[in-house]
């Protein structure tokens, strides 16, 4: 059994922690470049009848949904 499983982490979470640790250990200039590379912008699109709909930002759509839920 892998140590990350024994610690209760998923492999993706383990890799995120490891990457963040490596980025934080770099010198300032290299750290800034690596931090920008580590940011993500996830997008999604709904498919209907075999055709892809408009691609939307997951972060923006999530914020809009949370705002709509808060208004209820």
TrEMBL record:
CDD domains: F1-ATPase_epsilon (cd12153)
An individual GO BP term: proton motive force-driven mitochondrial ATP synthesis
InterPro entries, alphabetized: ATP_synth_F1_esu_mt, ATP_synth_F1_esu_sf_mt
Region (Disordered): 53-72
Biased composition (Low complexity): 59-72
Pfam families (UniProt xref): ATP-synt_Eps (PF04627)
GO cellular component terms, semicolon-separated: mitochondrial inner membrane; proton-transporting ATP synthase complex
GO terms, molecular function: proton-transporting ATP synthase activity, rotational mechanism
Family membership: Belongs to the eukaryotic ATPase epsilon family.
Protein's UniProt name: Mitochondrial ATP synthase epsilon chain domain-containing protein
Organism: Aspergillus chevalieri (Eurotium chevalieri)
């Amino acid at each position: 059994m892998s140590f990350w499983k024994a610690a209760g982490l998923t492999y993706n979470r383990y890799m995120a922690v490891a990457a963040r640790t490596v980025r934080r250990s770099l010198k300032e200039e290299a750290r800034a470049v690596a931090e920008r590379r580590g940011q993500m912008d996830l997008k999604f699109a709904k498919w209907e009848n075999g055709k892809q709909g408009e691609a939307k930002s997951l972060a923006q759509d999530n914020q809009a949904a949370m705002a709509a839920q808060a208004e209820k």
